[in-house]
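Support request, priority: normal
Reporter: lab tech (M.K.)
Component: structure prediction queue

Hi team, I submitted a job for S-methyl-5-thioribose kinase from Xanthobacter aminoxidans yesterday, and the status page still shows it as pending. I've pasted the exact input below so you can check whether something in the sequence is tripping the parser. The sequence length should be 416 residues. Please let me know if I need to resubmit or if it's stuck on your end.
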Amino acid sequence: LDRTAYLALDASSLPRRLGGRPELLDRLGPAEAWQVREVGDGNLNLVFIVEGPKGSVVVKQALPYARVVGESWPMSLDRAFFEHEALSRLGARDPGRTPELLFFDPAQAMLAMEHLTPHKVARRAFMAGEELPLLGTHLGLYLARTLFRGSDWSMPTTARKADLALFAGNAELAGITEELVFSDPFKAAPLNRHTPGLDDIASAFRADRPLKLAAVEMKARFATCAETLLHGDLHTGSVMATPTDTRVIDAEFALYGPMGFDVGVCLANLWMAAFAQEGHRADARAAGAYCEFLLATAGILWRTFEAEFSRLWAHERTGILGGSDLFDAQGDEAGTKVALATHLASVWQDALGFAGMEISRRILGLAHIAEFETIADIGLRGRLERRTLAFGRHLALNRRQIPSIEAANLLAETQR
Ligand code: ADP
Ligand code: MG
Ligand code: MG
Ligand code: MG
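Reply from support: The job had stalled in the queue. We restarted it manually and it finished. Here are the results:
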């Protein structure tokens, strides 16, 4: 691939550079009338909203470095290719849940897609106290469909191996997750930071042998269990929603990994939003009511995931692990049910472990979340983060003993 022509976009050059694209002219109208603004709230890439007389689109371009750190952290432009490949697959597996893709330009590491409007990034809605009544259902369906349909339960062996090989190429981003999520929070890594006042708990985490053993185990699951194509970065900043619609964006970290990773990261971000509520609503009753919504959403997400995964198991188990010849075909329907229950129990246990890792890294690692970062009262922020860390540690250490989403929610409710 010839990247000599690569040049980062800016708002003023975009109409000139993309004004010949039929996919954009159809949607927007003539390039002379385009209005461009950079969104720029992500960690890694350039994102522009382009508005024309007929409509609007989003253009996303990878930079040869990580935007959050700067040019000192070089990063492969190929991530735009993997984002495009992943969004195409995830969109086919759960139609309507990703933005429509308009074009991909490999040399410019650039993709254009549907402008989601009036959608809001989910964590922004959480901070504003806006309820998204369908969020849990939509995410539960999305997780079941994408994780099942990308796995050996669904895919035939040749396609599956080819896909695994393709996404193995996204190793640089997999390596970032391995370090930032599973190692850095538990050692003195140069990019770590935490709220003043948390020095004691940060150093306690670095000395916590049981927690570090859990981190090693979860890292091994993440790195070695190539169970399905994951989104790989499914926090609530990668979800845009309205009260009636939910979309998943930003799939550049896509890789083959364990199902529980996407589920656990998503649940962790709902729980963290609940722990942060007091920092966004002075009225304790309002904060409590919004927490109820967030925990109910976590409950709906998991129960919907289980129900939809079970439905797909019954009707679409056509892949390498299909296995209906072992049980149903020989008159043993109970055998199939046991296999399903065993699998779901393992996803649940993984999800709890990964949730514990995600919580640790969002408070002690490099990339923090807006729900905590925007709490101006540093003392209050630190107190809320401290409680959240204790909860995350509990999840990681007790992942084999927490039997249900109700039990996990009860822990969140009483520890926050
Ligand atoms: P990064 O990989 O840098 O995190 P994202 O894909 O998360 O980039 O996009 C950054 C921000 O741009 C999002 O938080 C959202 O505000 C906005 N954005 C991205 N894609 C769209 C879209 N299709 N429609 C509307 N806004 C979008
Ligand atoms: Mg993002
Ligand atoms: Mg972002
Ligand atoms: Mg991203």
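The pocket of magnesium ion (ligand 4) is lined by residues 42, 44, 233, 250, 252 (CB under 6 Å). The chain has a mean pLDDT of 96. Let us know if anything else looks off. Ticket resolved.
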